[in-house]
Request: fold
Amino acid sequence: MSPYPSQITRESIVAQARAMIEAEGADSLSLHKLAAALGVKTPSLYNHVRSKAEVLQAVNAITAADLTAALEASARSTAGSPRDQLLALMRAYRAFVRENPAMYLLAFATSDPDLMPDEATAQALALPLQALMAELVGGERSLEALRGGWALMHGFALLEISGQFRRGGDLDLAFERACAAYLDGWAR
Reply:
């Protein structure tokens, strides 16, 4: 530690936490390790954050916002039928999870209600997908279709990043076919 600790901010703390989680996973993060990585003593962090849980909440908020942005970018760049747009969004969702496995697990595979994205964030993520589902299947069935589609995307991606698909085969093709079959089933 230098006699003049580096200047830290809440944003730099959260950015360093994200980098450490990406490299080592969320379970290995501690405020002590985080402070050391930032070149300060642990008590210095408390000038900016109250707890490790607050840091994790901030990391999860960024992850949810990044996922929302990835889906919105996919929606803006995809023309065609609601089915085509939903398939593109499903691909974008899976790509995000594959590119950010530790962040995704922390934000969306937790049972800790304090770490889950808040209601407004969850709605920002879900409502555009539900609107497309409504175009495909009708408004009255859109919520249940959305929930099933979400379970398909989340479940597939979670199994994939945790290495549970062990029997070989083309996972890209499997994902494409599963998503297409799901959407086609609802469209009938």
Notes: The chain has a mean pLDDT of 92.
